[in-house]
Amino acid sequence: MTCLTNKQIKDMEKQAVKDEYCLEYHLMPATGWLNDPNGLCQFKGTYHLYFQYSPENCLGGQKYWGHYSTKDFVTFKNEPVALYPDSQFEQGGVYSGSAIVKDDTIYYYYTGNVKHPGNHDYIHTGREHNTMMVTSKDGIELTNKTCLMKNSDYPEDLTLHVRDPQVIKNGDHYNMILGARTNDDVGCCLLYRSTDLKHFELVNRITTKKPFGYMWECPNLVDLNGQMILFCCPQGVETEGYKYENIYQNGYFLVNGDIENEYSLSEFVEFDHGFDYYAPQLFKDESNRAIIIGWMGLPDAPYTNPTVKNNWQHALTLPRQLTFKDGKVYQYPIDETKALRKCKNDVKINNNQKITCNSNVYELYLPINNHDFKIKLRQDAVIEYHDNLLTLSLKDSGYGRNKRHIVIDKIENVTIFSDVSSLEIFINDGEYALTTRIYDHSKLIEISIDTSITATYYELNSYQII
Questions:
Q1: What is the number of other CB atoms lying within 10 angstroms of the CB of residue 404?
Q2: What's the CA gap between 316 and 337, in Å, rounded?
Q3: Is residue 220 part of a domain?
Q4: Distance CA 440, CA 191 (A)
Q5: Quick one: pLDDT at residue 1?
Q6: Residue 335 a catalytic site member
Q7: Is it the case that residue 426 has pLDDT exceeding 90?
Q8: What is residue 248's DSSP assignment?
Q9: Domain extent at residue 378
Q10: What are the start-end ranges of the E strands in 304-379?
Q11: pLDDT digit string (tens) for 36-78?
Q12: Do 258 and 359 reside in the same domain of the chain?
């Protein structure tokens, strides 16, 4: 097997072409392809943000773990590549995984992918999904690569698709959760237990009473105010009216009961309703904040990104803090994002009011106060709310992205984070969210609402990448 060296990758990054759609305050691949955030953690005051990285091919290829670090979410260091597909257990790529800190060591768990040549469907034959572990004393040098489990170690009724380990502390022990697909094409998760972070015993299978998709990817468990919540990305869920409009979903179940024994799952709740959100990973930082970051993209999507002409594609979303109230998970950009703000501008809005912007890199807060509205953004993006239905629509600037919807009883406020080629929209302080890529250079904001409101607008500074 051969893989690139860090020097080769960094040389490729230096030669990357500056693109007109490069984002100002989102993390992107320096070159090539980015997808799932991986191994998110805070260690000795520094946040480590790893991600699936294919520097050679902006359409996806052999996977490495790229790595940014930061202390403040404003200045980031582009670190050396953290993981390489350099063992027999991961010849097809170092796939997604997570991290957990214990004492003075970071433990990382990920899926080593192997695809064997031949006439295989790579679901039932021809693939290995190995659960791997490495450790680090500094977040930079990851060593002691070990294969913990192979496909032969998983239950016999599963396909070869068992991946994306996450490990959390649960009382006096640890749990690992893995996404899986059964031979009957039913999505589920496997739950393991460990006392030493090295030896894991299967204790339960997590699934719904009725099948919900054929595969659950990227599972994440988190306890928010005493409520255990399972985030995952189900594949194979059919659209139902305005629900499940993307090809693959992202969202969560509330876990009731004891997840290691008797439990039940709530109805699945969609998390981000936009065109470009998948594979989120969450972690708790040293101040016990639950922070989630998603891939601003979607596998197998029927729309495109013009950035591929300059050999890069995709980005990570803003880091968002999770809170749990009134039986729902809320998400909103972390407080550090406020450090990007320039001058505050309060703008009185009457019906069909246009706002003149100096840039399309901004944060806009609108106190809607339960009125119907229509917001025209940039070239052809429209956010409108009528008869309890919120609709986000794009035309040419969406490159195939058309409409997404959310049924909402009432809207108190809307916050829009606009970057050069992205929109992140939060409704009711993060009760709902929509994320999308958008490709134009218009600075238009036009708001139609049957009342007067005062909008708050900030231009935003760029991330500093060193």
A1: 20
A2: 14
A3: yes
A4: 45
A5: 60
A6: no
A7: yes
A8: B
A9: 343-465
A10: 312-313, 320-325, 328-333, 341-349, 353-355, 362-366, 373-377
A11: 999 999 999 999 999 999 999 999 999 999 999 999 999 999 9
A12: no
